[in-house]
Design brief:
The complex is a heterodimer of chains A (100) and B (185).
Chain A: H1 2-14, H2 29-43, H3 47-70, H4 78-95
Chain B: H1 2-6, H2 10-32, H3 35-52, H4 62-87, H5 109-119, H6 124-135, H7 140-146, H8 151-184
Chain lengths: 100, 185
Amino acid sequence: MKNIDSEKWMDDVLGSMEGSKTVAPSRDLFANIQSRIEAREVRVIPFPQRIMGIAAAVLLLSLNIFAMNAYGFFENDSAAIVSNESSETTELISDFKIYE
Amino acid sequence: MLQAVATGNASAFRELYDLCAPQVYNLALSYTQEEQSAEEITQDVFTIIFKKAGTFKGNAAVRTWIYRITVNTSLNFIKKKKRSSWLSIGAVKQETADFVHPGVILENREHAAMLYRVIETLPVQQKTAFILSFIEELPRQEVADIMDTSLKAVESLLQRAKKNLREKLASQYPNRRKNKNNLSK
């Protein structure tokens, strides 16, 4: 008897959503969705603007490379630079012998 | 209608919303068992629909496509929520009351609350198949299309879901009898 009772109860529970009504969301939800979509559209950078940004970055980078090249940054004479520096240091030290 | 939405037609989008929002909201409600979370999911789903309307290829029905987006968004939402509750160290765990679906028939309220409590214990695939078939009352083939699986696989998921639910309910039954006896005294 208990078994029949429990089986019936389980069937009732499993079928308890039968015939239930579809519930609608709150009325202001559509307005919220619209404002969210609009906010997203505002944030999107238009394509020509994006192209201009990329072009400016490329121009700046190439000017920097040109300037570095002009000042010999890429020349491989680091040894010469070191020797120049050492001779300058020697000179400076000899200059400090003011009591000679 | 979806093509019009893809071009940014606001009135077509409103029409689509009026047509589908209740289904989206109810499905999200079955997953989250919280009205506020279901509304958040509905917002996310319609934002995705607006954004991706142009990518809809027409291989499936629009309703199937929207249901699929809703299922995925709901599952992601639940995953995120679980992750954030793990991260909130020291937060006091709140006891949540039984969820009562607002659309349920009055005499079924107690049973429906019990049903939602045990649905929570099902694995994700079984839960999805059960909700779509027995709560949303969709045809099995549509459930299979939404879940991107075969009809046979859906039948098998439903069988296992029912078996699991019955096992859980069987363990709840003595408590239910006790509660009923206490109330009648």
